[in-house]
TrEMBL record:
<dbReference type="InterPro" id="IPR032808">
    <property type="entry name" value="DoxX"/>
</dbReference>
<feature type="transmembrane region" description="Helical">
    <location>
        <begin position="102"/>
        <end position="122"/>
    </location>
</feature>
<keyword id="KW-0812">Transmembrane</keyword>
<feature type="transmembrane region" description="Helical">
    <location>
        <begin position="75"/>
        <end position="96"/>
    </location>
</feature>
<dbReference type="Pfam" id="PF07681">
    <property type="entry name" value="DoxX"/>
</dbReference>
<feature type="transmembrane region" description="Helical">
    <location>
        <begin position="6"/>
        <end position="25"/>
    </location>
</feature>
<keyword id="KW-0472">Membrane</keyword>
<dbReference type="GO" id="GO:0016020">
    <property type="term" value="C:membrane"/>
</dbReference>
<protein>
    <recommendedName>
        <fullName>DoxX family protein</fullName>
    </recommendedName>
</protein>
<keyword id="KW-1133">Transmembrane helix</keyword>
């Protein structure tokens, strides 16, 4: 059962990382901008009032910053998940990004992605076992396992 859990979480991590990496790359290379989204969210009836206020008073005045930060954030989340570096942190910020997209009433595949991030967040120890540093340490310990096998006894030196 433990091996099955490791395999499933590894697959969820890779799928989530790939999706985020591709979304970030598309936004980075496709001239992504929030300028057209601000009036849509402002007039949207499904977004909460506080979220509309945030968009109207914060995002409107710094769209160029958000246009730059959002794709880079998605790329960082994707790379973190794919390489197993800070996977739990990447999962947290991935869930945060998906919640923001859902609050903006962009209901595409984001609820499914949010569910995948929640699954990852529920398996913190498994993510730690599958992290790149843990895998490297495991390989090092396996490599050095028989290294001191033929050392002489300390009293015979």
């Amino acid at each position: 059962m433990k091996i099955l859990q490791l395999i499933l979480i590894f697959i969820v991590r890779l799928v989530s990382g790939t999706i985020m990496l591709l979304q970030g790359f598309e936004k980075l290379t496709g001239n992504f901008t929030l300028k057209g989204l601000v009036p849509v969210i402002k007039d949207n009836t499904d977004s909460p009032v506080w979220y509309k206020w945030f968009f109207e008073h914060v995002v409107t005045h710094s769209t160029s910053l958000f246009d730059f930060v959002i794709p880079l954030g998605e790329l960082a989340i994707g790379l973190g998940l794919l390489f197993g570096v800070l996977s739990y942190t990447a999962s947290f910020f991935g869930a945060f990004v998906m919640l923001n997209y859902i609050l903006a009433d962009m209901i595409f595949s984001y609820p499914l992605q949010l569910a995948l991030f929640i699954i990852l967040l529920m398996h913190h120890n498994t993510l730690r076992q599958l992290s790149l540093p843990s895998v490297i340490n495991y390989i090092k310990s396996f490599k050095h396992r028989g290294e001191n096998k033929h050392d002489t006894h300390p009293s015979r030196r």
